[in-house]
From TrEMBL:
The chain crosses the membrane at residues 61-79, 115-137, 207-226, 482-501. One of its GO terms (cellular component) is membrane. It comes from Streptomyces asoensis. This is Cytochrome c biogenesis protein ResB. One of its GO terms (biological process) is cytochrome complex assembly. PANTHER family: CYTOCHROME C BIOGENESIS PROTEIN CCS1, CHLOROPLASTIC. Its main location: membrane. Keywords: Cytochrome c-type biogenesis, Membrane, Transmembrane, Transmembrane helix.
Amino acid sequence: MSKSTVGSAPGETPAASDEQDLGAAGSQLSTAPVDTLASGPALGLIGWARWFWRQLTSMRVALLLLLLLALGAIPGSLIPQSGTDETKVAEFRQAHGTLAPIYDRLGLFHVYSSVWFSAIYILLFVSLIGCIVPRTWQFVGQLRSRPPGAPKRLTRLPAYTTWRTDAEPEQVREAALTLLRKRRFRAHLAGDAVAAEKGYLREVGNLSFHIALIVMLVAFACGQLYKSEGNKLVVEGDGFSNTLTQYNDFKSGNLFSTDDLNPFSFSLDKFTGTYETSGPNTGTARTFQSAITYSVGAYGKDKKAVVKVNHPLEIDDSKIYLTAHGYAPVITVRDGKGNVVYRDAVPLLPLDSNITSSGVIKVLDGYRDAKGVGEQLGISAFFLPTYTKGSEAASTFPALRNPVLNLTPYHGDLGVNSGIPQSVYQLDKSHMKEFKDSKGAQLRDNLKPGETMTLPNGAGSVTYEGTKEWANFQITQQPASGWALGGAIAAIFGLAGSLFLQRRRVWVRAVQGDDGVTVVEMAGLGRSESAKVPEELGDLAGVLYDQAPSTPDPDTPGIPGSPASPASPEPEVVPAEGAEK
């Protein structure tokens, strides 16, 4: 194959001219800013400011800040956070007297609102903005401009091929222009060559990835600042209204306001739970769902819905999850005169996978003993959904096959008026007295549905009427979650585009040689060493060769006066002289 060589400009050495030429050919293949301060900042305040800004908006600093953000989130996951669970934070302080003050100084009990985490977050945000804006502007300029003209020496490019043809140079250039545009290259005539470029989606993917990161950062920030999360235990037949006082526990972001709560209400119609009855998975839940009736707004119409595990009910930007289930025995308490002083379903907390449960029944007002003395009653309750003789300590199955309720009553002062908060599931016995049976032992009895335990000395009775079921709902409200999901998806596609697409350029030069025969040169250049550029160039050269086939070289066999040989083959793409290998 023959190769054409073009001389250097006057006053330039060939090496300097080639390097300058190749630099122009490869310019703007990327939107990464040129490091003009690589040797250090200029003297003065402005020089240092420019240097600092260039470092902050560089990709390596953005990746470092992203790594620091991920590392900073680790203590937020391992150490109890005051905004999430104050009780666990208090327990940690009590158990770790030495570490707790250190964690306080470092802000590890409130990582996501600490100064250092916020500083990393803001610097990452600024770094991404400072990186994206100039690169986007530069990329828009590249889209509006044309690919640069062909270098003087195409032989210096990584992929190169050449051949001689009897076709006119104008015909070859026109055929090359048509071919490249058909292959979706942006192509134009530039002097004696056709310049073409392809792969702009790589930069689109790169910029999309960084923009998606900003969208995710903003969405996560809004989600944390304006989020709310609460839990509510609801017994069958009872309801819930989305107001702050209705929650059993509630936590929210720093900028959340109660006015942000979505107006809705719902009632639990029925909870349905079925379980495996045989095999190694005996007792495993098969059906776990709650049928509810809900309405939106003060005058909204009632609607039916079924909430299942991992299938929440969505109302505006609130989601209602089903998180737990248990039993609530219906208890009726009568005083010494037979008057009903308490009747309600009492939720009990599960202790194991078979829903062995425990809790407390507290009668605060209205109770009087046989002598008319007003007291308070506290009854410890232990419930077995499936009671089996010989296994009195735990239920043998989670469903209501043979429910038994064990009750241990006390009388006296529950301590609820002392001003000290106490759990509804625990009984303070410090000011309570036991009821004694006829043998002088503590009164304790197992009841089945419909049975009654009579308190001694005419003090009244306790009846186990039946069993309802309860469900625990978690109501979350996290704005901008859709934006975060969209940003994550866009980031994945953008990253895939920036990794698997390659931006490349192709030049086709056709000039008339000294002997009157047209010399065709083709060369390609990509952002990085890749087999795709030579392969693509070879494919293009093969198609163009069919339209402008080669003519025998007078210096090669097959010409009159030379030894006979086959006709010249199709052009082969080879590494050009001086190209990197």
